[in-house]
Amino acid sequence: MTESRDSDDEQLTPSAPHRRRSKLAIVGAGAVGSTMAYAALMRGAARTVALYDINSAKVNAEVLDLGHGIQFMPMAEVVGSDDISVCADADVVMFTAGAKQKPGQTRMDLAEATISLVRKVLPSLVEVAPDAVYVMVTNPVDIVTYAALKLSGLPPTQLFGSGTVLDSSRLRYLIAQRTGVAVQNVHAYIAGEHGDSELPLWSSASIGAVPLLEWNGLGEHGPLTAQVRDEIAREVVESAYRIIEGKGATNYAVALAGSRIIEAILNDERRILPVSSLLDDFYGISDVCLSVPTIVGAQGVSDRLAVPMSVDELAGLRRSADALRAVAQRFGL
Asked: Fewer CB within 10 Å, N side or C side of the chain?
């Protein structure tokens, strides 16, 4: 006996599985923003990458150039506009727009112009993408992040800065060079300000499973003496200035560092990254944005790791916090 079909049968048919879509918005189509879009597309970090910039010709050209290479990347689409609505409903917003750092300038020299830009753009961004996780990338990132929190009214879990993710990568690269091991086997963090007062956390660093301070060398590579560690720390701080002096901007490594943060958010990885976020009684440090190892996932930032620190490291972190507070007060924040 054949059963009759009624008009409701179509509604009972299981629908095709919903493909999760993800949208990344990048504010600023300059060297950092456009390279970050490229890195995110190459890594397949998001299904949609949206570029926003007030320079219509520049943003349209970047989108066209990126779009021509889409067939060679994981499946995605790239869009762009000088209309902020292009960022609507983004899951992640990377804020890369800001005053360009010139040779001889410190990151702090950029603060006034960049904070003014954030004040102008951020409220409109939050209006079109209220549920996005916001990552401030533009320098001076710690002060800009603190200002953005004050100006946006967003909770401190939802907005944070890229912090010392790039600096920590530079540190690991230099340690790997000095020890002759793969950079992937070096575990070390830069903490504090993304700038001149930042400091390496040598006490918690390791190479493989060997505490870095107990590393005795390998083959032709000698131990990491106090002098060698000081040289490495100085090179981490000065490397950005050298790159800017030589080519005008840092863009490749910061774009890759940014794409790593994007993936941690969109994939809810709960990855430990030294991002800059508003601290609340972290080793007695409060009401300042600076970088410490932090859990990053779909909701933004959550727990900070109370990593072991020497007396000198803790004192250095507090000095970094004091320096950033002084700058924030100078700008009335």
From this structure: N
- Is 68 one of the catalytic residues? no
Domains 23-161 and 165-330 share a fold: no
In sequence order, which residues have a C-beta less than 8 Å from that of residue 330 and are 6 or more positions away?
Answer: none
Lowest mean pLDDT among 102-116, 154-168, 278-292, 301-315: 102-116
What confidence score (pLDDT) does residue 133 get? Answer: 98
At 290 the three-state DSSP class reads strand
Q: Extract the annotated binding site for NAD(+).
A: 28-33, 53, 58, 98-99, 137-139, 162
Residues forming the annotated binding site? 28-33, 53, 58, 98-99, 101, 107, 137-142, 162, 167-170, 172, 187, 250
CATH number of 23-161: 3.40.50.720
Q: Are the CB atoms for 131 and 112 separated by under 8 Å?
A: no
C-alpha distances (whole Å) from 249 to each of 61, 102, 309 are 20, 8, 33
